[in-house]
Design brief:
Layout: E1 8-11, H1 19-31, E2 39-44, H2 53-64, E3 70-75, H3 85-92, E4 100-101, E5 104-108, E6 117-123, H4 125-135, H5 140-146, E7 151-156, E8 164-168, E9 173-174, E10 178-179, H6 193-206, H7 208-211, H8 218-227, E11 234-241, E12 246-253, H9 254-268, E13 270-273, E14 277-283, H10 291-294, H11 296-299, E15 305-315, H12 326-332, H13 337-341, H14 344-347, H15 352-362, E16 365-368, E17 373-376, E18 379-384, H16 388-393, E19 397-398, H17 406-411, E20 415-418, E21 425-428
Parallel strand pairs: 2-3, 2-8, 3-5, 8-11, 13-21, 14-15, 14-20, 15-18, 18-19
Antiparallel strand pairs: 1-12, 4-5, 6-7, 9-10, 11-12, 16-17
Amino acid sequence: MAATPSVTGRGLNTGLLSESEVRLLIADGLAKLPLAGRRVLVIIPDSTRTMPMPLVFEVLEQQLGHQTKALDYLVALGTHTPMTDAQLSQHLGTSVINGHAGQRQIFNHRWDDPEAFVTLGTIPSSELEALTETAHPRLRTAMRKHADHDVEVRLNRLILDYDHLLICGPVFPHEVAGFSGGAKYFFPGIAGPEIIHFTHWLGALLTSHDIIGTADTLVRQVIHRATEFIRRPHSLLAPVVTKEGVAGIFCGPTIQTWHAAAELSSRRHIVFLDRPVQRALSILPTMYDDLWTGAKGMYKLEPVIADGGEVVIYAPNITEVSYVHGALIDQIGYHCRDYFLGQWDKFKHIPGGILAHSTHLRGKGTYDTATHTEHPRIQVTLATGIPEQRCHDLNLGYRDPASINIETWRSDPESLVVDQAGEMLYRLK
């Protein structure tokens, strides 16, 4: 019986790895994986994650291109918009034409095509209830009422065409799973809608405020349980990156490697403040092209906003709520979790992932069922290209982005200004 490969790699608490160190660490990790002579499917992020994808793509080609029978790529979109050839070319740092980069096929995950999936199994509701009872006893009643059903485990059927699955994606604090990366590239990355909606709504029941930046979450347990249904060998290449560069690279078995990367992420991606701030200006990078992806600028700041405070999402380039789910979001608006729980019969037909996005962006709050009054903990305001009336219709505040003077915000001791927001998590000591 072959020995299980161990995790290899290196992470820095301060500073960054040089490009030559990154290349050597990736090459060393890949050399220890049983990939020679196999058909390998590399599962990668889309462009809404910071990652040196051109460098990684180049090293993968150098190290594996000559020894594998196939080396193709699947973009783990979840339910994001598919990437065009032009976007893939920029993302990978090489020309992509008709979904091909030379000999390599580059696939978008077809989350919207029922024929794209294969059913791997089912997690029964009794097992999910047992997990919930162990991890969060107080959640049991809510689970029984709002998420009590078996969960079908479906993945992109492309995995059946390959001998080995290599996840290649970064790890950051995350609003649904606690930390992103690892097996999350399976679920929801290339998964069917059932488990996507279940895990996101489960995270919403727990609230992003309480679980973001926590490694051992109930959602992560469900993801790892679902991963047990995959009957293909799989490994993980996990960089830990900042906007400035690479802080660490880990490679090896999926679950163990993710733990190593998440541990480093907890040291590199969390900023601790001494006291709450009254308001924050969240300046989004242009890699977020709608509010669905750019909402991370709220998630990562909510824990440090004082009660009654405000997060202003500043992104003049964003003109749409969601290119995929906008119609449903327009239908329900943005509300705290208890708004939906208090009127469950009215909203139970809405997919869980949509409800989850709504509550995560709106943040914590309460809902009085007697008076039908919602009381959000903080105000969320958009300074984007989304029109004022639509913001109000969505139950969000509005500011004209042209009225925002960033330097005035910086000079205000009661304000926090976060440049390149969306990946660094802010928490109170």
